[in-house]
Amino acid sequence: MTVKTAQTFGSTVHSVPTIKDTGTDMKNHIHSKRLHQSNIKMQSVVVLAFFVAVACAAPLTPVENAVDISLVTETTATTTTTTPIPIVRQQMTVENGIHKNSFETGHGIVVEESGSQKQVGILPEESGAISSGSYSYTNPDGSVITVNWVADENGFKASGDHLPTPPPMPEHVIKMLADIEAARIAAATATPAEIAPTL
Asked: Where are the transmembrane segments (predicted)?
């Protein structure tokens, strides 16, 4: 590649590249163009990384809604208690595959749980742990909240006076679930000859 210089407008010199027909000059020109494009891409990545770093460092809350940390620390310090809450009752037993656990704290939390292993299906590998229990505590308004729960082959179910109840399951869904269970049982109890396709 050769460079021609020309003088225009008094003392200003402009350089104008011209490409000769030789292959070497053309290759050098293409190579320098690729390097220039590569440098532009790298600069774009660096600028993008800078903006991502700035965005990550920005506060999550607007400044006008920010909370003074000294007030939080002071408020927390006045409401924190250093008196440990005693466990007034605790019992745990495990016998013949059945476990029971219960405890009560000095400020009114009561937890009870029991469970065992159960065959939940026809096949031997379809066994699992089932358990049930309850817990209760005193709400800040003074009312006692109690939750009773069961965890078995039908899933986890919790109940309590304070919990919303779901609407009843539609009849077509109940029938569909029963059909699926019947097909699963039929497939599990079928002999290989009954399962083999006939040609």
From this structure: 42-60
